[in-house]
Amino acid sequence: LKPFLPTRGRLRIPSRPSTSLRLASWILDRFYHLKETLKWDETMSLSWLKYDTRGGDAEWCEKFAEVVKGLVPKVSGKGWSESAAALQEIINNKEAPLTLTDVRDRPERFFAAHRIVAYYCSPEEAPGFWIRFTVHYNLCFGTVVALGEQPHLDQLGQIMEKADIGCFALTEYKAGVNSGMVVETIADYDKATDEFVITTGSGEIGDPAEKNWISSGMMATYAIVVADLRVDGKSYGGHAFLVRMRETVGGPCLPGVHMVDMGKKTIGNDLDNARIGLNKVRVPRSTLLSRYGDVKDGKYVQKDAKIKNFQMIGQRLFTGRVAVAAAALMCSRKLVTRTKAYADSKMTWSPEGSRPLSQLPQVKALFDEADFELSRLEMFVKKVELALADVVKQDGTPDLELQVAIGTCKIACAERNIALLNRLKMDVGSYALMDSSGLQHIDFLQACKFAEGDSRILAQKMVRDLVGDVLKGKKRQGMMPANGAGNAPEAMAEEEALLKDLLGKLSKAGNDKKAFGKIWEAEWRQVYKLADCIQNRIILNWCGNVASAKL
Q: Which of 71, 209, 372, 532 has its CA 20 to 30 A from that of 290?
């Protein structure tokens, strides 16, 4: 800019104006790029952040946002200890308290808190902190709320007073997220002491049954340990136990518990992920979350014949999937908006004169598609969230229609936004390589993809359920949600054709389950394509085929 500095009150005219002007234009462009990419406009998506007015809790949201905003400098670029301490500050804060029972008593507040944390912490500031937050409030202690009895709920108050932190130990090394809920950890009941003895496989270090990729495991004081409950050697399936792993946050493990960190990740290294083993860890019978299944007088008692305990462990996956979907949307909206600001400022040559990068046909089309898809998904997730909130306030279980919609939220918001942002990276040139672009943080969406049930597993289940409904002559799920926009016949044609073709192939197996499985695996591409069609139909049912889906 030196050629333009004034001399004695006059503007200096450069001897080579074209070169200097180009240089000045480049510097100003870089300055604008830096300003836009490093600043996140806090007015953005405020309607998405605002608490549902039915609860009248907007004031709480504003106060909670201030609490979270103040924590960002304490966790951004920091380690596990700082991240855990920040979570304890949220637990202890009195300005906008979030209790461990809000997931049931004030679910709108619970969901709003998740969006606010995602808003300020993902994708680049502290993406691992959002995961630590949801594991604590939803997966760990939310499971206590769902499966625990009154003594367990009473214990939550003491846990909050001490600002203890929780984690959720379900996934095992031998059975990862692509295997579903397979559990080889054993909880043997000892009648003599009225205790459970919990062991991951053999109990030895490195056993395949060790709990794997447990978020917050290296710092948490408590864990929900999912284990196969056995009485007199008989298995009663997976049950949840609230197990203390250490006396203080980040302190040494209690006897019988061993763990190791999973190592450095591509993103979210403010979060610890542990591989946890238990070797004959004795816990009182009271650690069993016994709302639906218990051991009394030395015998297993199933309290409701219609409800299996292992199925109820998945209750928190419903709220978690909606929270994950909202976080994925928040991350994606931020990255798209930031990239659009750059593309609007980046001038490119054309025969008609320079024009912004964002106005090139392929780039403009991509931004238009992104805005439409994100707006529609935001509307869809918000509607599903409100419907789920009504259910959990009644301490109920989502019906099958809502369960299908919840699964769609999680799959669509992770998978579609991963694809969208990767396409965007390909069309904005070297900007995508810049650290300030934030596009290197797309792996946060990868975490969303396998959190709360891997998207591939959910998609396969969606198609299996559809095939099963059709073969049994049942009503097809996901057709007419109570608060949706009605049926979507325009979305049915491709789905019907794919379904008919898949059913024809599967029919060749007859009653042979092995043959059925081989055909299913061979037709995996068609299965996932059919799952996409089901999701499209469900989104249309809830939101309609609108030209604009703004909140």
A: 209
Question: For tokens 């990862």, what's the residue?
Answer: 176
Question: Do 343 and 363 meet the contact criterion of CB atoms below 8 Å apart?
Answer: yes
Q: What is the pTM of this model?
A: 0.87
Q: Is 480 helix (H, G, I), strand (E, B) or coil?
A: coil
What's the chain's length in residues?
A: 551
Tokens linked to 85: 């301490």
What distance lies between CA 131 and its chain's CA centroid? Answer: 8
CA dihedral (124, 128, 132, 138) positive or negative:
positive
What pLDDT is attached to residue 132?
Answer: 97
Structure tokens at 132: 């630590």
Q: How many CB atoms lie within 10 A of CB 486?
A: 12
Q: Please give the single-letter amino acid code of residue 39.
A: K
Q: How far apart are CA 430 and CA 407, in angstroms?
A: 36
pLDDT tens-digit map of 25-39: 545 444 444 444 334
What's the CA gap between 435 and 413, in Å, rounded? 24
- The tens digit of pLDDT for each residue in 367-391 reads 999 999 999 999 999 999 999 999 9
Q: Residue 317 in contact with residue 452, Cβ under 8 Å?
A: yes
C-alpha–C-alpha distance, residues 460 and 321, integer Å: 16
Q: Which token pair is 547?
A: 């030209």
If DSSP codes are grouped into helix, strand and coil, which group holds residue 6? Answer: strand
Distance of CA 327 to the CA centre of its chain: 6
